[in-house]
């Protein structure tokens, strides 16, 4: 087991096995997040509720994830990130096991709430953890590895869950998800070094951040995008079955095509863009863009509160520097 503390210099050796364990953790948690969309009719029938009521399992996860992602760094500002990541993956294991054994909808919803805490917290902390595992000039590549867990879950886990749900039953699929989360937890416990946070963030700093119009604009845009996506994706199986008569095998193939397209268009093509944005050249470009935007803006609108677009570039560059410095 790795027990050393992560070095803070820009020339530290890369820990790619640790980065891979973070990607596996993302894979396990996102797989659990997406499973209700492929198993919704079976869950509803087994628990004796409507598909709409069973779909609230996704709502509970989303709400808890939103709160967890915002607050975890403020609530645990000095916590060892290694322990936090392992603990969050452990929550995913517990959630999947409880869902697999849930006797009614209420228990299932509570378990999905726990998954949301794991999901939001893991997303929020994985980037900072990856930044401590690799040199600064490899951070873009490391984040691509971590985020590839999302693409892998969409490409493999979602269609596989749809098919296995017909073979094993929906409870068996969640037991499989719990097993994958246990594998991810074991990999993290073995490969992740101690990573104490040096950030001084707290609830006060979180409040100050949320008063920024730039931040609120970005959060609002993200909220709209993900609300639209999951409002449709959650009920894709009952919609497809009722409108087209396509069975579980056909739906699995459709979801596989959807996942492959998302991987090719998203993860596979974003590596160079992310790497450039996190490089010093990318930061300089962001700052130049922000300065040029400000220079073409009337003086009375140059203050960030009145013209947030003019300061986006500089704020982005500063955020990237802060991430790399931790």
Automatic annotation (TrEMBL):
InterPro entries: MFS, MFS_dom, MFS_Efflux_Transporters, MFS_trans_sf. Its main location: membrane. Keywords: Cell membrane, Membrane, Transmembrane, Transmembrane helix. This is Major facilitator superfamily (MFS) profile domain-containing protein. Residues 287-313 are annotated as: Disordered. It is a multi-pass membrane protein. It comes from the Bacteria. The chain crosses the membrane at residues 16-37, 57-77, 84-103, 109-131, 143-164, 170-193, 214-236, 242-264. SUPFAM superfamilies: MFS general substrate transporter. It is found in: Cell membrane. The keyword Membrane applies. PROSITE patterns: MFS. Residues 18-326 form the Major facilitator superfamily (MFS) profile domain.
